[in-house]
Specification:
Blueprint lengths: L1 H11 L17 E2 L6 E2 L4 E2 L4 E2 H7 L12
Antiparallel strand pairs: 1-2, 3-4
């Protein structure tokens, strides 16, 4: 968790406010490094620095383990 917070400060450089753009319910705390969406902790993949939508698209394609969907 501490590493995720550090990653957020390094990549965004500013505070994130407002409502999560994915669930539209929780407070947004992070900014996606890929699409720029502001998202809550639940909808953020700290290892990748992506929102849940972008992280899902960037994971290996289940049909062919050597390709990625970007």
């Amino acid at each position: 968790d501490r590493a995720v917070k550090c990653h957020e400060r390094q990549t965004t450089g500013m505070s994130v406010t407002g409502v999560c753009q994915i669930c539209e319910h929780r407070v947004a705390e992070y900014s996606c490094d890929r699409c720029g969406a502001t998202v809550c902790a639940f909808d953020y993949d700290g290892e990748m620095g992506f929102c849940g939508d972008c992280a899902q698209k960037a994971k290996p394609d289940n049909r062919r383990g050597d390709t990625f969907q970007l």
